Amino acid sequence: MTHKPLLIFLFLSSILSCRDHTRPGETSTASTSGRSVPAASASEITIPRNTTIDPAHAYSDLFLDSIDLVDFIRQQHLNDTLANELHNFYNARNFQYAWFTRDGLTEQALAFSTLYQYSQDSSTGRKWLDGELNSLESEDSLQLTAIDPVLQRTEMLMTWRFMNYLNHRYTDKKQRLTAFLQLIPVRKQVPLDMARSLVADSGMALATSGMEGPWYQALARELPKYLDWQQAGGWGRLPRTNKSYKPGDKAGFIIAVKKRLLFTGEMVPSDTTQLFDEQLETAIKAFQGVHGLTPDGRIGPTVIKELNIPVKAQIKQILVNLQRMYWMPADADKQIIIVNIPDFRLQIMDSGRPALAMNVVVGKEGHSTVLFSGRLDRIIFNPYWNVPPSIVKKEILPGMEKDTAYLTKHDMETTGMEQGLPAIRQRPGEKNELGRIKFLFPNSFNIYLHDSPHKELFNMTRRAYSHGCIRVANARGLAAWLLRDMPGWSAEDIDKAIATGQNIGLKLNEPVAVLIVYYTAWVDEENKLQFREDIYGHDSTVAGRLFLP
Fold first, then answer.
1. Three-state SS for 364?
2. How distant is the alpha carbon of residue 374 from its chain centre?
3. Which of 120, 264, 439, 465 could, after both became Cys, cross-link 449 (CB 3.0–4.6 A)?
């Protein structure tokens, strides 16, 4: 929920509290007071422990003991300013974890772990913390416990790092304090109340906390319309059908579809006849376009499913994505490559305007591509594919058992042993799974962009097939754009390099920012609100932590 800093200060001025060592659910010694708290940084005020937050209503299901924080501050020899900030941060949360739940890292932790590197602030570049985060991020499933001392240390080091990040990004005290209290959710809320509060607090001019970038602002402006529709009772539910209606058909069902589109203004009022006319076809194609469906103008089960999503569910979807947009890099409106996983699209933005766009194929179920930001700095022509050990174990070795010529048929070779398994790589060529071009940006996940020999996949509507890396439909076009200012690397030169069949590495003169996001709701460059399927279930997970029933 977005609050203006003034509201935060008024809340803080209403209560005073001594520090205590109570666990969640125990009684606090907080008392009320009429003193006002001036606008200040988080280190210049005292935030009382918010014991109204209990495990049933907290965003995270893990809680620290306040004694653990005291011990951490002493062990790390932190100064009084930083110690006070850490106490304030956890007091406001009633000492619930900020970066972890029992299931593992939160979305905020995943976003921040690479955003911090993105800021190029190395003041707390602790190898131990980076290694522990890498280890946790690589696990498919976790069951964490609050009393694990390693997890406690990781949590508090992350928060210390977060304080340094805030100092780097927000120079204004009010902006920093707002970000300090809002970037990481604290408690579950009623979604409609959360949406109404956001709209009321912003006055649709939006708070000037410095957190709300252009993506956030554009999406937030859609909320009043959806709240009005919810207030009006929402739209009626269309009956399910296995039939696919096309232009020229006549049916009573067509009347219901027209009324649904008229309700949201997606079809201009004209008639409510049973005829599937040209006007309805145009409206259906537009509807399919903003929901990531093939715009064939037909009304089938998939279109009906999208038309039947309740307005309340779409409000929750918008709120979940607004939370994600808080973590957009500060310069995301400049030159940047953005990959939106649920949209299966890559787009290059240059000074806020689209410069190049293409389809991508992302990780299939079980190989979900992670969310992170980084900097693309190298291009490899005719790359080798070093097969990950997990794929060697699950796919390559069984293939070799069935066919002794498996490696030869797939242009593969062994290069030694790794983790008790043969290290296998695929040679450059037409069969190479990375295609002819690979784009690298340093990261601990071994994620990169690359070409693909399977061009047919880029024409599919749902493109989640790869083993975690991101295949791009127009690798040559992307390479040409990245090398456009480097002498001797025209489109012809790129083709010549590929034609050699030789493995060629090239370092860019200027790295380009890459941002991989998971947005299922956003406003595009044509000012159209877009919705996409929650392909990995991340929306559902966040909604379960963010909203009360």
1. coil
2. 14
3. 439
DSSP codes of every residue in 213-270: -HHHHHHHTTHHHHHHHHHTT-PPPPPP-S--B-TT-B-HHHHHHHHHHHHTTSS-SS
Structure tokens at 346: 């890559």
Q: Let me know: does 68 contact 43? Beta carbons within 8 Å.
A: no
Alpha-carbon span 425 to 410, nearest angstrom: 10
In Å, what is the CA distance from 172 to each residue of 13, 196, 247, 396? 21, 27, 57, 55
Pairing assessment for the beta strands 412-418 and 464-466 based on DSSP bridges = unpaired
Instruction: Write down the pLDDT at residue 253.
Output: 93
The per-residue pLDDT for 333 is: 66
How do strand 504-517 and strand 336-340 relate by DSSP bridges? Answer: parallel
Q: How far is CA 13 from CA 16, 18, 31, 149, 474, in A?
A: 7, 14, 11, 35, 57
Q: How far is it, in rounded angstroms, from Cα 543 to Cα 290? A: 22
Q: What CA–CA distance (Å, rounded) separates 35 from 15?
A: 8
Q: Does residue 173 contact residue 99 with C-beta atoms inside 8 Å?
A: no
Q: For residue 125, is pLDDT > 90?
A: no
With beta carbons less than 8 A apart as the criterion, state whether 284 and 298 touch. Answer: yes
Backbone φ and ψ for 64, nearest 5 degrees, come out as -90, 160
Averaged over 116-139, what is the pLDDT?
A: 68
**CA triplet 150, 153, 159: central angle to 5 degrees?**
145
Beta sheet of 421-426, edge-to-edge order = 385-386, 421-426, 412-418
**How far apart, in Å, are the Cα atoms of 137 and each of 131, 237, 364, 368?**
10, 41, 17, 12
Torsion of CA 378, 383, 443, 523, to 10 degrees: 80
Chain-centroid distance, C-alpha 441: 18
Cα 188 → chain centroid: 20
- Cα 280 from Cα 272, distance rounded (Å): 10
Residue whose pair of structure tokens reads 């409106």 in the numeric block = 333
DSSP state for residue 393 in the 8-state scheme? I
Task: Enumerate residues 6+ apart whose C-beta is below 8 A from 93.
Answer: 50, 53, 58, 184, 186
Q: Tens digit of pLDDT for each residue in 352-368?
A: 788 999 999 988 655 56
Lowest mean pLDDT among 296-305, 355-364, 519-528: 355-364
**Cα–Cα distance measured from residue 381 to residue 197, given in angstroms and rounded to the nearest whole number:** 52
Using the Cα atoms of residue 42, residue 65, residue 27 and residue 18 in order, give the sign of their dihedral: negative
Q: Which of these, 4, 38, 2, 33, lies nearest to 17 by C-alpha position? A: 33
Of 208, 128, 118, 186, nearest in space to 160 by CA: 128
